[in-house]
Amino acid sequence: MNHPDRTILDLVGNTTLLALRRIAPANGARILLKLESENPTGSMKDRMALAMIEAAEADGRLKPGGSVVEYTGGNTGVSLSLVCAVKGYPLHIVTSDAFAREKLEHMKVLGAQLQIIPSESGRMTEKLTRDMIEAARVIAAETGSFWTDQMKNRDQMAAYHQMADEIWTQTKGRIDGFVQCVGTAASLRGTGEALRRRTPTIAITAVEPAESPVLSGGETGAHRIDGIGAGYVVPLWDKDVSDRIERVSTEEAAAMASRLTREEGLFGGTSTGANVVAALRLAEQLGPDATIVTVMCDTGMKYLSKR
């Protein structure tokens, strides 16, 4: 059926929830993976980018003819580039050479203007995050652009409440655990809070890089898991949302991402690998009857240059 008013943005969300078959807990628990790679740009960030822009349009922070600025490790930038292209807003992105070249090229193809901040040997650090944020702040002040400011923007929570509703429906309410890695913390918090309202006993696990375990009280450090681990406790982090924090190393995350590709046919990035490592650990604790949901944050096609 033709829908002449529909755009690519109407295809954001309502992604598949798929059970892992071969990479499964030894105790018989189920791990279900939310395939956010099915979103138009191949990332869960399509949800939050659309939510932030539409909220700003609704309350007048972003007016017709306006422009947008953001700092990003890549996926948020690609998603904002898509949303702004469809809606007709010029977009200025602050990013870094620490992130996959595919993401930077994707943003350019969609029309974004990029400012590249040099990294320390291609690694994510606290200093890099803060340098990117400051550069975006300066651009917003000088140009009058709407700054989405993803580290502080609560409008994105609505997008993850919707994801929680999808998970609840897809599991028919049978969910014992939820696992998600922490970048801005919005996806963990928004999805986790909404699931806990329905199931107060759900076990929620936050995942962070073992090399930079600041959420669990460790020292900041450098790592290579794209899109997570800002190197400091981010503003949207709420320690009361999660029951536990799992530390996963870049090596563990990359190895699991490779296993998912070769054993399940699911080609995701290292953040997805980290999620599955942590989900397997949670399954050991919850027992054989448990159902645990975690997230395939994006497609591995975004990282071919880093393999």
Q: What is the name of the CATH topology of the largest domain?
A: Rossmann fold
Spatial arrangement of strands, main beta sheet: 1-2-10-7-8-9
How helical, in percent, are the residues? Answer: 25-40%
User: How many separate domains?
Assistant: 2
- What's the pLDDT, averaged over the residues? 95
How is the main sheet built? 6 strands, mixed
From the N-terminal CA to the C-terminal CA, the straight-line distance is 41 Å
Please tally the β strands and state the result. 10
Low-confidence stretches: none
Task: Describe, in plain words, how this protein is organized in 3D.
There is one protein chain. The protein is of the alpha/beta class. The chain folds into two domains: 8-38 and 160-302, 3-Layer(aba) Sandwich (Rossmann fold); 45-147, Rossmann fold (3-Layer(aba) Sandwich). The chain is built from eight helices and ten strands. The chain has helices at 45-59, 75-87, 101-109, 126-143, 157-170, 186-198, 250-264, 270-286; strands spanning 17-19, 30-35, 68-71, 91-96, 113-117, 146-147, 177-181, 203-209, 244-248, 291-296. Strands 1-2-10-7-8-9 form a six-stranded mixed beta sheet, sandwiched between helices. It has a four-stranded parallel beta sheet with strand order 5-4-3-6, with helices on both faces. α3 links the parallel β4 and β5. α1 packs across α2 (75-87), α1 (45-59) crosses α5 and α2 packs parallel to α3 (101-109). The chain is globular, with a radius of gyration of 18 Å. The mean pLDDT is 95.
